[in-house]
């Protein structure tokens, strides 16, 4: 028997979540964002689950886009960080992939390359990460519109705080910069499309919502948004022992039994992608019962309190996050966000994919 850890990937849940977003965005097309290996879920499986529904797929690496093409994915694709070297442009053009331009030198290289291409021009509206400055927008559009092989131009920005203070200032900046050009827009990530319908434009870019986590857990839980978790990180107890009052648990003994207790050892550690910063009290499900982590997470194991979990024995099923235990909740306790937990799933954790129509 293999080590009992696995990540269950529920493709019916991805489709459910896609439809939840679809209902909130009736008039825009949707790029399903599948960067970072489909937020850790497996880019090929997610693309297959959404093959009939997604208007397009947005990702970072040309290699991933070409792999999807070779697997028969015909939808539009968008390279969110653009091209990294001009030698990528022939393949991008040949495969009909849309490319983001976020620097003026990329605008010039693309206009001079002579290859037919659809482009997104990214404007910096205050995130100060990628994007040309608003003052450069007219010049960039002049160059692109003068290049006959440029097939289409969409204007894009990315909001720095759509899940917090909002988008009013950057949206005003964007509209002021681009309003006169009459071009299609693509502005919204998950938080923006849920909170600010005025950012829907021609295309939206949902990522984390498709995987069933909330982009803004402080405002709305995934459940309140009607989302279902796609990944369930599951394992089992591989040891159970009784502790006397005063016994310490794990490295450095950061947890000491306050009274006689029973504890279980779970085959899951930080080398599986479980956050080492999760401390005593982090929620864990054992046999469907909610209990708490004890002491330090080690590389391959963590300890849980099973004092009040009847029947907790070796082989008892454990859920670290997913069905019954939102990744958002575990992330909050560990001082991070669900995005990091999902994308941080380690390669050594086998993925079990439930196809659409199976299970439920
Ligand atoms: C990752 C990413 C998204 C998706 O963000 P979510 O918060 O997961 O919806 C959208 N747009 C860009 C440019 C991104 O890099």
Structural commentary:
The chain is an alpha/beta fold. 25% of the residues lie in helices and 23% in strands. It contains 11 helices and 18 strands. The strands form 3 sheets. Strands 8-7-6-5-4-3-2-9 form an 8-stranded parallel β-sheet. It has a 6-stranded antiparallel beta barrel with strand order 10-13-16-15-14-17. Strands 11-12 form a two-stranded antiparallel sheet. Strand 6, helix 7 (137-145) and strand 7 (150-156) form a beta-alpha-beta unit. The longest helix is centred in the first third of the chain and has 14 residues, at 11-24. It is elongated and about 80 Å long. The chain binds pyridoxal-5'-phosphate (PLP). Pyridoxal-5'-phosphate binds at residues 33, 35, 80, 158, 189-191, 205-208, 215.
Short key terms for the protein model shown above:
8-stranded parallel beta sheet, binds pyridoxal-5'-phosphate, alpha/beta, 360 residues, 6-stranded antiparallel β-barrel, 25% helix
């Amino acid at each position: 028997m293999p080590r009992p850890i696995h990540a269950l990937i529920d493709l019916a849940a991805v489709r459910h979540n896609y439809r939840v977003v679809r209902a909130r965005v009736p008039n825009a097309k949707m790029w399903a964002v599948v960067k970072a290996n489909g937020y850790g879920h497996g880019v090929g499986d997610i693309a297959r689950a959404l093959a009939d529904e997604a208007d397009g797929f947005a990702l970072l690496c040309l290699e991933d886009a070409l792999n999807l093409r070779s697997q028969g994915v015909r939808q539009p694709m968008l390279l969110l960080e653009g091209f990294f070297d001009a030698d990528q442009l022939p393949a991008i053009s040949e495969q009909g992939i849309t490319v983001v331009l976020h620097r003026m030198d990329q605008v010039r290289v693309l206009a001079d390359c002579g290859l037919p291409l659809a482009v997104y021009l990214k404007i910096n509206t205050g995130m100060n990460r990628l994007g040309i400055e608003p003052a450069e927008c007219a010049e960039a559009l002049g160059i692109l519109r003068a290049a006959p092989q440029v097939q289409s131009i969409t204007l894009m920005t990315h909001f720095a705080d759509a899940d917090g203070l909002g988008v009013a200032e950057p949206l005003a900046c964007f509209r002021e910069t681009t309003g006169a050009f009459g071009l299609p827009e693509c502005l919204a990530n998950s938080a923006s499309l849920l909170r600010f319908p005025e950012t829907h434009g021609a295309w939206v870019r949902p990522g984390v919502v498709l995987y069933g986590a909330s982009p803004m857990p402080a405002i709305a839980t995934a459940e309140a948004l009607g989302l279902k978790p796609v990944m369930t990180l599951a394992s089992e107890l591989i040891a159970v022992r009784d502790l006397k009052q005063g016994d310490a648990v794990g490295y450095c003994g950061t947890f000491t039994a306050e009274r006689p207790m029973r504890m279980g050892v779970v085959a899951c550690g930080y080398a599986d992608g479980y956050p080492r910063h999760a401390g005593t009290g982090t929620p864990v499900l054992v046999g469907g019962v909610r209990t708490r982590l004890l002491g330090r997470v080690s590389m391959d194991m963590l300890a849980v309190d099973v004092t009040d979990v009847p029947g907790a024995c070796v082989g008892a099923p454990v859920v670290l996050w997913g069905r019954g235990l939102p990744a958002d909740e575990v992330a909050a306790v560990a001082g991070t966000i669900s995005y990091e937990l999902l994308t941080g799933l380690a390669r050594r954790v086998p993925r079990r994919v439930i196809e659409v129509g199976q299970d439920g």
